[in-house]
Amino acid sequence: MTENKELTAGKRIGAMLLDHIVMTFVIMIIAMPAMISDMADTFSDKPIAPKGAIDWSLILMCFGMALYFNKDMIQGKSIAKRALKQEVVDIKTGEVASALKCFVRNLTMAIWPIEVIVVLISPARRIGDFIAGTRVELMTDDRNSKPKVDLKKVAISLSLGFIILFAGSFLFKDKLILGDITSNDPSYIPSSYNKDLSLQLENQLNTTQYQYLRNTDIKVYDNITNDSLKFIDASFDLKEDYIEDPSFEKIKTEIFKSMYEIIPKEKFILKGKFIYDGGNTKKWTVNTYDWRQIK
Questions:
Q1: Each residue of 133-154: pLDDT tens digit?
Q2: What is the C-alpha radius of gyration for the chain, rounded to an integer number of angstroms?
Q3: 295 band by pLDDT with thresholds 50, 70 and 90
Q4: Which residues does 162 contact at the CB level (< 8 Å), separation at least 6?
Q5: What is the rounded CA–CA span in Å between residue 15 and residue 96?
Q6: 15: pLDDT strictly greater than 60
Q7: pTM strictly above 0.70
Q8: H/E/C letters for each residue in the chain?
Q9: How many whole angstroms separate alpha carbon 55 and alpha carbon 139?
Q10: Is residue 7 within 8 Å of residue 138, measured between CB atoms?
Q11: What angle do CA 151, 152, 154 make, to 5 degrees?
């Protein structure tokens, strides 16, 4: 038996905090390669991925979050619970909870501030435990703390977590209003990437707008499916934090006018990403401009 049989609120909150730190680190390890690759592509001459291409950053992030919600799926114990001698127990049978029950109880971690308050009142059972029919207890010798792992249930639980998160991400992905126009890239033709025109526009902006821009990365695509316009994907690296400044609209207008000297605005749709990286402060805004829709 454990020397201290009392499961206190302090021990439970300690396990929750340790789990959060560990799982955040795990998620970053999983998602970081794709995130680094995406950042590298943004500042290279490589054509951006077409609409509908596999978003590996999103997939890996959803998988990492699915692991977070399934952190107790192996024998009812997360990494922190193993370290602090705790385990999730089925309240009806008194045995270690199944992977599916552990998954259900962790869904409410989306409202973790409320769960912390509940744990202060009820260390053994937070909201997720009441929903899943589980409780947290200290590990004991009289209960089999190493039950056989049901790999099928573990796989189902992990898959459910991924499907829910991945599907949920699409509920908001195409509905975010970022500035003037809904951010929704047109279906451009990747093979129509025009490197010469891209470099021409970059040189134009880096020369004429040096007072505002550190650097500019532009990719021009000559063809859009079912449209006669070009598609321009542009990243504008700002020298100062103009994004929340009242003069930002005027600055954008000047930048766009420089682009019109190379290509008239009636000839293209622009996805403009304005980024300010001040070391400790990083801000950005993304707008898709279809000039036919702007009065």
A1: 999 999 876 665 566 778 888 8
A2: 26
A3: low
A4: 62, 63, 66
A5: 17
A6: yes
A7: no
A8: CCCCCCCCHHHHHHHHHHHHHHHHHHHHHHHHHHHHHHHHHHCCCCCCCCCCCCCHHHHHHHHHHHHHHCCCCCCCCCHHHHHCCEEEEECCCCCECCHHHHHHHHHHHHHHHHHHHHHHHCCCCCHHHHHHCEEEEECCCCCCCCCCCCHHHHHHHHHHHHHHHHHHHHHHHCCCEECCEECCCCCECHHHECHHHHHHHHHHHHHHCCCCEEEEEEEEECCECCECCEEEEEEEEECCCCCCCCCHHHHHHHHHHHHHCCCCHHHEEEEEEEEEECCCCEEEEEEEEEHHHCC
A9: 41
A10: yes
A11: 60
Provide the residue type at 24 as one letter: T
User: Is 99 within 8 Å of 132 (Cβ atoms)?
Assistant: no
The fold of the 181-293 domain, in CATH, is Alpha-Beta Plaits (3.30.70)
Domain range list for the chain = 9-173, 181-293
Q: In the structure encoding, which two tokens stand for residue 142, read together?
A: 């009289």
The structure tokens listed for 284 are 């950005």
Structure-block tokens of residue 193:
């990437």
